[in-house]
Write a structure and sequence with these properties.
By secondary structure, the protein is of the alpha/beta class. About 40% of the residues lie in helices and about 20% in strands. The chain has a nine-stranded mixed sheet with strand order 3-4-5-2-1-6-7-11-12, sandwiched between helices. A six-stranded parallel sheet has the order 15-14-13-16-17-18, sandwiched between helices. One of its GO terms (molecular function) is alpha-1,4-glucan glucosyltransferase (ADP-glucose donor) activity.
Length: about 475
């Protein structure tokens, strides 16, 4: 039996993207389709989304959706994506990004914008307008977390059953916190202002409201599902997660091999596979030219990242002199905290020809870095899943990762036993400090100087299966369990 699922999120490739959330939301419909799941995606009507969607078929209208006129329109994209768009110009037709203005300042009414998204999702899930409703609703992160809350309190108000809901946490650090003054405008009953509702330390948390209201919580890796139940990683919500531990599921993200495959990637100077790995050298030469680095055969480290405390960029800055001193070079693509950007630019000035920095993001260049870099540095303090290391594995760019979240779940450390058994795929270190990261870089350089073992590690990573097939089956199983159909 085919099940109909409505997923709601604030971004999805190929329409709008700020991070890995968009990759997952964009890939999930095709991942679950082979398992009898027909998934439709609801997105906000940002200008880019409306332009890509083309002419919409109106399914539902609102005269007053949190103070704005709105409609829900449907489109079917060329890749088969079933799309619903919440077209509300007052809420979403703005210059800048999905969450912030052109200067990088969060829109002050984000609570209203994404509460409206949640309200529309709950209405559509239950058959509003010219829709038939859906068997299940799947919400992603705090921006969509009001949808499970509305379903819960609507059911309590009228006694009518509602479809079950799933809420996926992509990063628990972002929780949608707002002041208590916002609560009356959310349209929730008074009992929602409670420890079992959206109230959180005297204000509201949209994510917390969804977590206590949904029927199942998923995270994007098994390790992260365990970590967020601890004070170190739970960001204040660990008690909420522990109280619902029997409903928490860790399902590892996958990568879309249609977009990320070194044998077919048009962004590479030279395409390659496991048996033609020597062709990567042409991509390495292209990176050296792009970043004004000295040409050479020594290890080329790369970084593709937001430049933030979470990503460990501050500790990485301390290790750059050590990396260069070992004969390594470094190419950085990313943006983030201004002080960290300036620190990297200072390192490039200190080591001309050895360190190159590009502030910003370039999708094609990120593919080239994976296809030509020898090793990719990912020293995150916490990482719910991470896609960067999965791309690195697929492209033979050996990941150097901290032992946290999805990084720990996906990379096998090149310790002596793993090397002897031929299963190592990268370098894993515990505890982010100068000494642990510096030692990981040293180990990488030592391994690089053993060409046979290094290429075996590369090929192991390229042979690993981190596509969406297993994860898609896991989500489909969870949906059917919630609907009482069994695994």
């Amino acid at each position: 039996m085919t099940l109909s699922v409505l997923q709601v999120a604030s971004e999805a490739v190929p329409l709008i993207k700020t991070g890995g959330l968009a990759d997952v939301v964009g890939a999930l419909p095709q991942a679950v389709a082979p398992h009898g799941i027909a998934m439709t995606t609801l997105l906000p009507g940002y200008p880019r989304v409306l332009a890509a969607a083309g002419k919409l078929r109106t399914l539902h209208k609102y005269d007053d959706l949190f103070g704005a006129k709105a409609r829900v329109g449907a489109a079917l994209l060329e890749d088969g994506l079933r799309l619903l768009v919440l077209d509300a110009p007052e809420l979403f037709a703005r210059e800048g990004g999905p969450y912030a203005d052109a200067a990088g300042h969060d829109w002050p009414d984000n609570w209203r914008r994404f509460a409206a998204l949640g309200r529309a999702a709950a209405d559509l899930a239950t058959g509003a307008g010219r829709t038939k409703g859906f068997d299940l609703l799947h919400a992603h992160d705090w921006q969509a977390a009001m949808a499970p809350s509305f379903l819960r309190y609507d059911a309590a108000a009228d006694g009518m059953p509602r479809p079950p809901s799933v809420l996926t946490i992509h990063n628990i650090a972002f929780q949608g916190h707002y002041g208590a003054d916002v609560f009356p405008a959310l349209g929730l009953p008074p009992e929602a202002w409670s420890i079992d509702g959206v109230e959180f330390h005297g204000g509201i948390s949209l994510l917390k409201g969804g977590l206590v209201s949904c029927d199942a919580i998923t995270t994007v890796s098994p390790s992260y599902a365990r970590e967020i139940q601890t004070a170190e990683f739970g960001m204040g919500l660990e008690g909420v997660i522990r109280a619902r531990a029997d409903r928490v599921h860790g399902i590892l993200n996958g990568i879309d091999r249609r977009d990320w495959h070194p044998r077919h990637d048009a962004a590479l100077a030279a395409r390659f596979g496991k048996q033609t790995i020597a062709r990567r050298s042409a991509n390495k030469r292209a990176i050296e030219k792009e970043f004004a680095l000295e040409e050479g055969d020594g290890p080329l480290f790369v970084i593709i990242s937001r430049l933030t405390w979470q990503k460990g960029t501050d500790v990485l800055l301390e290790c750059i002199d050590h990396l260069v001193g070992l004969g390594g070079r470094l190419a950085v693509l990313g943006s983030g905290d201004r002080d960290l950007e300036q620190g990297l630019q200072a390192a490039a000035a200190r080591h001309p020809g050895r360190v190159g920095v590009r502030i910003g993001y370039d999708e094609a260049l990120s593919h080239l870095l994976q296809g030509g870099g020898d090793a990719i540095l990912i020293p995150s303090r916490f990482e719910p899943c991470g896609l960067t290391q999965l791309y690195g594995l697929a492209y033979g760019c050996v990941p150097i990762v901290a032992a946290t979240g999805g990084l720990a779940d996906t990379v096998i450390d090149a310790n002596p036993a793993a090397l002897d058994q031929g299963v190592a795929t990268g370098i894993v270190f515990a505890g982010l400090r100068y000494d642990t990261l510096a030692m990981a870089i040293t180990r990488t350089v030592e391994l690089y100087r053993q060409p046979a073992r290094w290429q075996q590690v590369q090929r192991n990573g390229m042979a690993a299966d981190f596509g969406w097939s297993r994860s898609g089956a896991a989500y489909a199983d969870l949906y059917r369990q919630l609907l009482g159909e069994g695994a």
